[in-house]
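Sequence only, no structure available. Ideas?
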Amino acid sequence: MCLSGGSPPKDNSAEIARQQAQDRENKVNQGKASIDSAFSVFDPAYYDKYKQTYLDNYNPEVDRQFGVAKQQTQYNLARAGTTDATIGQKQFGDLVRNYGQQKQNIASQAIDATNKLRTDVENQKTALYGQNSASADPSLASISALSNANSLSQPAQLSPLGSVFAGLTNGIAYGVAGANNKLPAGYANAFAPGATLPGGNGSGRVVG
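Reply:
I predicted one. Tokens follow.
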């Protein structure tokens, strides 16, 4: 008996492979879109606000401490009778220069803190892109992106400022410690050599 010849089954493995590759690419693109959406909160306005909040935490405390230090310097110099002398002018000049330096330091630290946050965000986003490309799981990418973005956007803990003018004011106080003139009773304790500035340790808060 002679069997009639038929056409061999069509080999569509290449087409299947192409379709699978396309499906995978679509899933990777979906995951990337979810990552981009979750991290879209970190725009230029977000970083500007972060930096400004940092400045708003420390600058008022520097201003407050400067006012206290200036008053303390005035009383210490008056006690020594050198307010209008060259030494008095130098002490006030040193205090003002130190104040300007403290403000510059805070501005620089605010920029550094903001740049660190920006770097952390970009590094985490890059890591999520890599995980998404490896897994091609858009649901996992979305969950991971939202979790990481939420973690990065949590308020940052800021430490107290500390007494930034203590070195200058204490030096002046020790210089006049032996003067015969005495401060009025109401100021004796507040401006004694080595006295702690009221609230000089600052107050911690968070950025966010």
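The helical segments are 13-38, 44-80, 86-135, 138-152, 166-175, 185-188.
Hope that gets you unstuck.
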